[in-house]
User: Fold these one by one.
Assistant:
Number 1:
Amino acid sequence: MAITETKSDSFKTRGEFAEVLHHLVRDPLGLTGLIIVSLIFTAAIFADWIVPYDPIALNIKDRMQGPSMNHLMGTDQLGRDTLSRVIMGGRIALQVALPTIGGAITIGVLLGMIAGFGPRWLDNLIILFFDTVRSFPTVMFALAVVALVGPSLTTVIFVIMMTSIPTYGRVVRTQTLTLRNSEFILAERSMGASVGRILAVHILPNVLGPLAVLAAMDIPTVVGLEAGLSFLGMGVKPPTPSWGSILNDGYSLIRNTPWIIIAGGVPLILTTLGFTFLGEALRDVVDPKLRGRR
Amino acid sequence: MTALLEVKDVKVRFGSGQGLLGRLGFSSGGSIEAVAGISFSLQEGETYGIVGESGSGKTTLARAIGGLHHAQEGSILFQGADLRGLAEAQFRGFRKDIAMMFQDPIGSLSPRLTIKSLLTEPYRIQGLKDRDLEAEAKRLLAMVGLPADFAGRFPHQLSGGQARRIGVARALALDPKLILADEPTAGLDVSVQGELLNLLARLQDKLGLSIIIITHNLNVVRHITDRMGIMYLGRFVEEGRTDDIFAQPQHPYTLALLAANPEPDPDAQLARIELKGEPPSLIQRPLACEFHPRCPFVRDNCRTGAPPGWQSSSEVHSHRCHWPADWQNAEA
Amino acid sequence: MTADILKITDLSIHYDTPRGALKALRHVNVSVPRGKIVGVVGESGCGKSTLISTIIRLLANNAKVASGSIVFDDQDLLALSETQMRGLRGTDISMVFQDPMQTHNPVLTIGRQMTDIQYRDKSTTAEKRNRAADMLALVGIPDPVQRLDQFPHEFSGGMRQRIAIAMALMARPKLLIADEPTTALDATLEVQIIKRLHELQAEIGCSILFISHHLGVIAELCEEVVVMYAGEVVEQGSVRDVFHSPSHPYTKALLDCDPGHIKEKTRSLPTIPGEIPDLVNLPAGCAFAPRCSQVFDACRSNRPAWNECKPGHHALCHLAETETVS
């Protein structure tokens, strides 16, 4: 039995967000994740001011240089500054990841709650949709869509979003199913609350916590997918810098200079680590019962 | 005085006709009758106790009356209107008159809402926009004896007793005529149990409420109910005025329940009536008298024939048993 | 060999919390004589669960032993290694928990679970099965041999609690710790289990530490009783002494509150107003003082002593002092 606190003391209602943040920074893993993620966001938001060079400006004279004071991460085969391209690529990565995951969560939550709370046939129908989508390999699906409508940022966002919906939808559905028979939902029903009200006011806030964790862990996957598609030439069109296209360039030039592939790979790894750490820590923190066990 | 609530031969079945297969006639297990014909009536200002052990169907009955379960048969007349089979939209009009309280004091409060939001939820649901929610929350907290600063707390910051008071306060928010309280003392310490029962009694005297208390605990019904029914396998086996039942229980099951209540006195004379075995499953109800496999006084005709219909030992006290306790000849 | 199978002396357990040490147990003394049933009564937050967890060493990570000793069968439990402790659990010390629906592994048959727990034994599986069947018969399960092949969900709550008791007694433990074993059961089944426990204890001769909030059950089953409040033992003595002439106001109030005690119909039941104190910031004097009906000045400032009211009957109360003024 873990005694955490007696009932009568913890009223200093800090607010859910502040409470989570407070516990997050006390966890070394969470703090590391938080720092990395904040750095990535800052770099992406202020990219226009931070980048030392125009990321698509050619400078054939200085092509394929190693790191130097002028070009901290060197230049590529067209003489473009790799650091600038990496920072801009980060922005692209987040531009793909955030709407993708935001969209997937919105649709997933909606469908998941309807499936969990609605009649049995609707549940079956939605589950069938989830399973169908999930049974496609993401990359194959992406290639098919790209073949139909051509590569673009929007295509990437659409494809990844569609394939992530079931992940969120399923989690929400399971949670809704457990909650729908709980006494507080019965109590709301006994007062005559409408289905919409029950879902929005009483179920939604209780399923969002686990989703935040899932989303944080999903961002690296999406970034990786975008990089992968761009690497294959199916994502972001050149000359727009993307981590995937940087890797692609670096891959073909790996015999000439290793710097490009390192410059493109390290931020990808860091992003993955940062968001995973954050997600792991969030999982412990958002559940008040697990809080402070570390 | 007319009855506020009149329950007539209500039956609630589970497990049949649900799902596609069931509807097409491929029902596999058959249905169970959780409530198998219950009748009772409740006057205004009266408290009625429904007593039974787990699996007796008491909670299902309460939820059927409260419109949360569909009752397949019978009628539930509330102020003359039949509530049975009403669609949710039609039932909504009765929601403000019938308030329910659930077993788990903390679990029946939506966990992410503050006490103030929880208390004023009924007004928002019923669309009463003219109410001053702040003032109403204060009024309700005062009514159940909690300080006003509780309004900002969350359910998990309350003790069981405090959460239970919030449940009572919320049930009273819309001035209901009837409160259905399912195990109102479950999960509470003995020292707090009394507090809650006193509160209910006081509020009833003040507001003229009718209350139905569902419980397994005879001690709870003894002091605050006027009449009671003892439920076994979805049916009443004995029904009547609480005082009469405590004074002269007729059905052996009632006798056993009354005796199964250890007293905090090591020297208490134990006239214990021990029941054999465990309650049978609803899927395979015993034949003849349904209580006979466990009855300590079982005789031959209990095994062969169903007990006679309701027998009255007085005008307001009746039971169903072949061999009721014989208080005249003091031979049980 | 000492007279007590379990002797807890001056035990204090503190939990580390962000607000400071939460003093869940303070200077607790409990002893269980060999072959006796000792009851522990108290309401939520009194420290019953912490006490059990300490004895079988399943405390949360943030708990630490601030003082005291636990001597079981002449060995100091707090000094044992984890491995030695594991050797004791399930053999010399067994437990029965509150919720019979969650004590068994749902995917194994009862027979499998009952033979598995005899893993220390060298005998053949058939012998172990026989012993399991005998044990089931002993706790009153009909057709024990057939029922060994059934899964937990095929048994009702009352049956499962009997099986839990059978499993706990299988190794013929010296001490059985029963944590609210009848709370989750219906009254008619509770009576059956209590009766069976009584018979089994007489037959096996083990000691039982029986934890319950239900005074009636304690009165019926136990010979000695320990009353706990807010992490302290407030009264201890024979069931007869404590229940007939309670010396601590909390025990008195608790007995008054028990609805089984109140024979006359009333619409105003007795209660104990107030809440248990904050175990991080305890009141200076007696922990019960803020709720006590007989409180006087000394209660608010001085911690009461462990006074003997009569031989073998103690209370932690200033009022109990009068008879033994030194």
Number 2:
Amino acid sequence: MYSFEFARPGSIDEAVKALKAEEAQALGGGQTLIPTLKQRLAAPSVLVSLSGIAEMQGVCVSDDNALCVGGATPHAVVAKEAAKSFPALAGMASRIGDPAVRNRGTVGGSLANNDPSACYPAAALGTGATIKTNAREIAADDYFQGMFATALDEGEIITEVRFPIPEKANYQKFVQPASRFALVGVFVAKYASGVRVAVTGASEDGVFRWTEAEEALSKDFSAKAVEGLKVSADGMISDLHGPAAYRAHLVGVLTGRAVNAAA
Amino acid sequence: MTQVTMTVNGKSVSGDVEGRTLLSDFLRKTLRLTGTHIGCDTSQCGACVVHVNGRAVKSCTAFALELEGAEVRTIEGMANADGSLGTVQQAFQDHHGLQCGFCTPGMVMSAAALLADNPKPTEAEIREYLEGNICRCTGYHNIVKAVMAASGQDVAAVAAE
């Protein structure tokens, strides 16, 4: 690891200030960033840890029935505290990585990194979440901009994520067993206004909405409604874990399973 | 260098560290607590698992300076006050839950974290919880037996496969 200064601010304001330094980098739970630093794939001058900011911790349900998760809340806390209010999201959080990773990794870190195989992007896009930062609110539909790319500006911090609680939802993850990331993951959520389907792990453009399935499921929320639908393998990730056609096939299968399991 | 202070195995300790000093290095090099092993150093193997404020954490994937004021427990803190092996450690010995022993500190710390949360886990829950701890000797079977035994459950019920 290259050497860097370390800052651990106690408030969002202090963190924003610290991140104004040249080549400053925010540190969430570090479960991706620390391995990246070890490989010398990143060389920040200052690492600004967000783990000491109390106002970015915790889970609650808002008056307009959204699950509000502080940006620095670890996955294990979401798994536990959202179990009753939003079981599909809690279930998703409880299967990220392994227990030790879930005790450190955070929702803000996952969304800021936007790994094309991460779980949280599917939950955020699948629920039409709002990503709150120190500067503004960003709709999930505008936030994800391709593999590892987001709408965040330099030095912008995810302070909270608000996930509208659906009538029914489920996340199906086909685990890539070595990394425990999703080979493909599908988040299905049914709202009074319609159904949303978000897919992670499959596309070279990162997480995406499967609109054909959304239309079919909005008319008829059953696995049968998506049985005949196919996703094109064009632009799908192809690697030693699975070719593009296999991933495209999994999208359909997992969407059906998610509908069947939705609760 | 910045000074960091934390509680390790019940004792307040402090030391001067760099920003990039990992908790695993602080434990092993500064405190000379070499029971915490560094296996892969890439967050995969779990040999370095310790407890931070009661939760299992990979010490190779946390910076010492993030843990100012934290309560840390390592494998050195798992024995009984009289120096005899703690319940989980004894169960690993009784059930041959280790061969080379390299992964054992992490296995014991993960198992203890599981049992603190879930005192009577099923075999499936044990196997799932230990997903982030890799052992290349035992095939996990005796480790799972040891965790079952440490939780006071019948080990005969553990599946042979």
